């Protein structure tokens, strides 16, 4: 009789945990798959035209990048990756190298008058998305 009660209690706890997991667990799971991650200033470098930005400018750039509003994801078809990294424009991208734990990511940031395009590279993968950031659009 007591074993039945213990098993029902444990099953109830497991069901309760699965139906409403803690916020920290949900946040951790979503952060693993987010397309536009928050970048830490101390673990990143920003290059423009082959030169590193100074600390003040780098922190403003990364802060604006983190606060930028995600607009949409651009689909990259196999074989067309080079067109996203080197578009047929005269825009020089900002290149952000970011290391988080054992993940290394590179962001190529291209500005236009009404939006900012970002190409994210990690491992052997690539993704492209569009942001809206007034500072980045003016700055670049």
UniProtKB/TrEMBL annotation:
<feature type="transmembrane region" description="Helical">
    <location>
        <begin position="6"/>
        <end position="30"/>
    </location>
</feature>
<dbReference type="Pfam" id="PF10787">
    <property type="entry name" value="YfmQ"/>
</dbReference>
<keyword id="KW-0472">Membrane</keyword>
<protein>
    <recommendedName>
        <fullName>YfmQ</fullName>
    </recommendedName>
</protein>
<keyword id="KW-1133">Transmembrane helix</keyword>
<dbReference type="InterPro" id="IPR019723">
    <property type="entry name" value="Uncharacterised_YfmQ"/>
</dbReference>
<keyword id="KW-0812">Transmembrane</keyword>
């Amino acid at each position: 009789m007591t074993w039945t009660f213990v098993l029902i209690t444990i099953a109830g706890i497991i069901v309760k945990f699965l139906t409403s997991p803690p916020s920290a667990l949900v946040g951790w799971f979503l952060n693993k798959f987010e397309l536009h991650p928050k970048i830490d200033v101390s673990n990143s470098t920003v290059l423009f035209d082959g030169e590193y930005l100074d600390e003040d400018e780098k922190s403003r750039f990364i802060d604006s990048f983190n606060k930028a509003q995600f607009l949409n994801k651009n689909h990259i078809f196999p074989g067309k990756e080079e067109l996203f990294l080197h578009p047929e424009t005269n825009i020089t991208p900002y290149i952000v190298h970011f290391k988080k734990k054992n993940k290394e990511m590179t962001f190529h940031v291209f500005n236009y008058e009404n939006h900012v395009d970002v190409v994210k590279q990690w491992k052997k993968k690539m993704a492209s998305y569009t942001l809206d950031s007034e500072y980045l659009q003016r700055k670049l």
